[in-house]
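Provenance and format

Records in this collection were gathered into a single text stream. Each protein contributes a sequence line and a token line. The two records reproduced below are adjacent in the stream.
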Amino acid sequence: MTDWTAIVGSVTTLLGGLGGYWLAGRNDDNRDQQAAAREEAARRESFAERLEEDRHTFQRDTLLELQDELQRLVRNTAQISL
């Protein structure tokens, strides 16, 4: 009877160790996938912010150019009128 319990004890220990190793591997994979998802979300957010900033800069530059052209037109019109 002692041999039977020794075999069961060692098999149980072996299976417990392998099960723990397998679960640790799954947890590591899940953690890596979550980290990759967070990095991807951060990259997308950064890209969206950069596009928003570029759009804002383009609009500002366009409006400043329009203002300069309008001022030049008013000056020319005033010179013609005088």
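Adjacent record:
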Amino acid sequence: MGMMVRTIVAFLLGAGALVAAQHYWMASVVGQVRSQMASGSYTLPQSQFRPAFTTIDADKLRMSINPPLTIDTKRFEALGVQSAQRRIDMQIRNAQSYVPVPQRIPGLR
């Protein structure tokens, strides 16, 4: 039982120390901000504007962002045509398999 009480007391002391440290840290930050606001030096420092690029070539920029693609589709077009031909041949064979075969009488042909 004594160990349980010591654990709870240690937890409460740690939590209290953490809350106190956060409170004092926040108070110091707020104090620094208030002192700078009161002195009037809260604006960002001004600097001279210098462009990163002197000239920009729009065509080169467009080509670097979206380069032209050359895709050769002849091989895949041929595969598509061959696939369609194969499918048609299979349909014709399937339809022919349903046609009745003429009777064969031995000795007549």
